[in-house]
Fold each of these.
Amino acid sequence: MVPALAATALLVSGAGPSHAAAAWDPEPAPMTSPLTSQTNQVPVDHPLPEYPRPQLTRPDWADLNGIWGFAVTSRDAGQPTTFGEQIRVPFVPESALSGVQRKITQNDKLWYKRTFIVPSGWSGRHIQLNFGASDWETTVWVNGRQAGAAHRGGYDAFSYDITPLLNGGTNTIVISVYDPTETGGQAIGKQRVQDVTPHPGKSIVYTASSGIWQTVWLEPTATARITRLDMVPRLEDNTLRVTVRGAGGADGTSVKVTVSSGGKTVGSATGTVGTELSVPVPGAHLWTPEDPFLYDVTAELTGTAADKVGSYTGMRSIAVKDVGGVRRPVLNGTFVFQTGTLDQGYWPDGIYTAPTDEALKYDLQKHKDLGFNMVRKHIKVEPQRWFYWADRLGLLVWQDMPSMDSGKTPDTAARTQWESEYRAIIDQHRSSPSLIQWVDQNEGWGQYDQARIADMVKAYDPSRLVDNMSGVNCCAAKDGGNGDVIDNHNYVGPGNTPTEPVRASVLGEYGGLGYRVPGHEWYPGGGFSYEDQPTTTALNNRLIGLLDGMRENTMPAGGLSASVYTQITDVENEANGLMSYDRQVVKVDQARVRAANQALIAASRSLNATVKLPVGQNVSIRVTTPGYTDRYIRHYDGLGFTEVVNTASADLLKRDATWTVRPGLANKLCYSFESRNYPGEYLRHREFRVRREAPDGSTVSKEDATWCPVQGSGGVRMSAAGFPGQYLRHINAELWLAQSGGAHTWDNPAGFTEDTTWAIEPPWAP
């Protein structure tokens, strides 16, 4: 969909004659592989040479990645007179691939320098100096004069028109970057200042990435130029709504937008820059994860302006609506369960920057290979080429806004900066078809004004879903109460997120199953997880059990619509990845995981109505196991048993075998069973044994007393709300919470299905 667009060779490259590229060497990386090799796959002079902005392309550009002069001064120092080191841009100085590999603190300022000559073929055009991203405060000088205002932000692209600063010959760029990381108030995600080489410590935050970390490049444009295409597909009338944004006097200029496929025009429309155009796309070929079809798009200023850009789009819609009485996200009008992983986007040799474009693509392709249809990009924003690969490969994307420091309440200046950067990120990626949901905040980190921010984001981009807080049940997080989804975190889980009448229920994080691979550990022996697995067989069985539990129980009975497994790779000392940190080892059985994910997705497409029980009415619950069908659930001395009940039974037994059906204490889509004899006490599991007990008001006790019924053969099966895949079972007349093939005697797979299937009958006691 995007042409090769090879970069123009600059006549002068590197840091100048006094800094020869041959003298530069990378530092030894903690881990490496053919995928991330620092010597074989990453060019010294032009690393990451691919066109960096796939949704706004022009044929001419020049890559400035490569060896630059480098210096580190104190925070308040002026420009150094000498640049005694070299750095490979766009790799951060903390990384091995940069050739520097050392800690940068809030007391440091980074300095970069190089020269270039504008290609002669660009004469008469304006020259734009573009940055994919630089963390955090970036100031640029060209030939000794500052290019515009300093840019603040670590995750959004920015540009300068440097035409007035050029000298017609050899030009010098000097860049300073100041990055306070967690000592400042800005968005940092999981970055923290720490040792840049492996060290012990069970931390879920990682090595900081300071300075330039995405491609730097030059681009010639017309004076009046296109800066962005805001594209929103409208399936209801088969149109693509396009707003062309511009600069240099382009506002109000006539523009033509054309949508094509295979070189043939599908539709076109003319209008003016800054106003919405409606481009017809008759019989639209819809974009889905299974069929990620993309259309080509061109936009051209007409008349004397003559700027033309290329782009692409996918025709798809995303919304939340009622599906069988449950609020669910729908893609192109249809509910499809979203199963994905948490993707941190870290690399052992490049940290924030993938070593190659193929590496950037690799993690997304591995999601597809494992059967996932979604990825949550966790409190980091990737280069635009990452979104291009997600668009092409067909992955639904939840994009987190990187959070501020979790240990602080942001002040007014920090809030203003964070919201400004969030809007810039939305603008930068708002036309990517794969991106379906913005995640505002995570687990209360730097939280404030959740409801207002969710409303702000929804108003700014109404074409996508908004998650006001991922992990509202965790870590003192506060739910804004609005947005399109309610999002819990459950480790190991999967647990469930209670259903609501307006928002869809999703599981923003679960899993975290760990397995350390000798020879592929960032710090050998230092890895940790939420639940270590002794063998790969145990890891596979546990993971498949979680996925199957969602397919069999949480999705149909509990109303869950999406889940995010932690995580796609190990990261530093976190050993809970499906792959090792160096991407050399896929720890799980790819075929089994793929099959489980595909079964989960397929089940969502043919989802039946949830099992309905008579709320507010008394019932008795009968065994369906052949030979024991005259037995019923009863309580005795606070414990649950089954016992034969008939018309001749004592009244006390009949009352003990009668339960009042209540809405689920932890999930109103499920049910709780209140004792007929002991109002306020419920059938619940605790330490696997099922008993009659009053909840203590905690979330756990409410979940333990909530059962989600799914249709079984000849009855219903009662799955624990907090433990999908574990069922109410009778064995030796006792009631247990059991999992087929588990480690306990009550998990015996013999007769398991029959023993966990129950008939809901009229009550023995009214």
Note: Residues 11-22 have pLDDT under 50 and may be disordered.
Amino acid sequence: MALSRRLFVTSAAALAATGLPALPAEAAPRSAASRYRIPVGPDDTPDDLVRKASQVRPTERQTAWQALERTAFLHFGVNTFTGLEWGTGDEDPDVFQPTRLDTDQWARALRDGGFRLAILTAKHHDGFVLYPSRYTNHTVASSSWQSGHGDVLRSFAGSMRRHGIKVGVYISPADENQYLHGVYANGSARTERTIPTPVEGDDRTPGRTFTLEATDYGAHMLNTLYEVLTEYGPVDEVWFDGAQGRIPPGKVEDYDWDSWYSLVRALAPDAAIAVTGPDLRWVGNEGGLAREDEWSVVPVKENQYGRTDWALSYDTPDEGSRAALVEAQPTTDYLQWWPAECDVSIRDGWFYHADQLPKSVDALTEIYFGSVGRNSVLLLNVPPDTDGRLHDTDVTRLREFRERIEHELPEDLARRARVTGSSRARTVDLGTEREVDRIRLAEDIRHGQQIESLVIEAYRGGAWREVSRAGTVGASRILLLAAPVRARRWRVRVTGARGAVRLKRFALYRSAV
């Protein structure tokens, strides 16, 4: 967990730079891994639910993930060449011909756009795999591209790491190719399977093997995960979804989530499992926008072999308030740290289509403030084109997006200001009157998410005057003022909280836009 430790050190340095008191090392919870979910029972009172919610803590991998803020998605595969969004599973692998593949160009563009992790569609719903797998012929190895020796995943992983970007993989649970071949949803029983499963000509000598419960298709997924997580270096996010592709509704496989999760934990212990997973959840839409008040502590239940699921609907407008905790109680198994990931594509589609254009800088900026500014992490899809490159217009837009955010949030005016008061009523004295129109707040989430409401005030005309108010904060909350406010002294006052508040950040900006 070296990454998490580095993030904590950086946070402490940032606190010192702003004049806020840094927490001593021993103040951080020591057993967060065992407190990221707390059981709920039918006899819990509303006060019990709030108390339990206040005690939930993120794991180190969750804390590290929430600090990333901007992550990227790369949808690439046979759909890139057929023009489809959802494939069919019976594509001729030879359609995959990215003759100018340049994953270093992907990495440079993402780095210059301010992204810190990228997720590649190693397998989409069609089942086409972007590396030469031992367990399916629907792969790049069956294409004439690079004479059957191509490996997009290896090139992607190497390029991202060379440019300082963390690696994530998307492996679709649905698989239309395996459905067509009678493996997916074939009615096979869950039995003990040895992973990796030996195949003819297999030259591996696994240092570890695993015995896990799985169906025929569940074993296929386990073998896919084993290959990806043992042959391509460290992975920091494993992304599952719940879409079925073109597979008929009556042919749904009961996924072996418990076995899949166990294998990921064993082979990639630092990887966050999203968004059908225990670490991160889907925000509930594909527009990239979080709720106005987004909670990281939400009620969950377990379904289908240990799958983490919403106790309320995935798209409910309120996932974690006091009222939501009470409403969800009859179907709640746990209160869990389950932060939101906001996925959206830079273009209308998830795969590249030549007739689509990227979103405007204004639209991307609105998405940033509606995701990162609301206690969530942005997952922006940037699809490679048929040449195997990110299109020049998208590359330019990514750079413009980063520059726009830098202008929206330039130097923190409170960086060297005098800070007084407590965490529930903190005052910043800028030393002279300054105009402010952006305010950024953060809790020290190692101690949970506690703030339920707050007000921001400026001292003007001999009195404290309210300039903004908000509900939740969590890892990141950004407030945009309708017009700049000029004042020397600024105050944040917490008006509602579940437990002891530890405010890590109170930053003031004057937008340069």
Note: DSSP finds twelve helices and 20 strands in the chain.
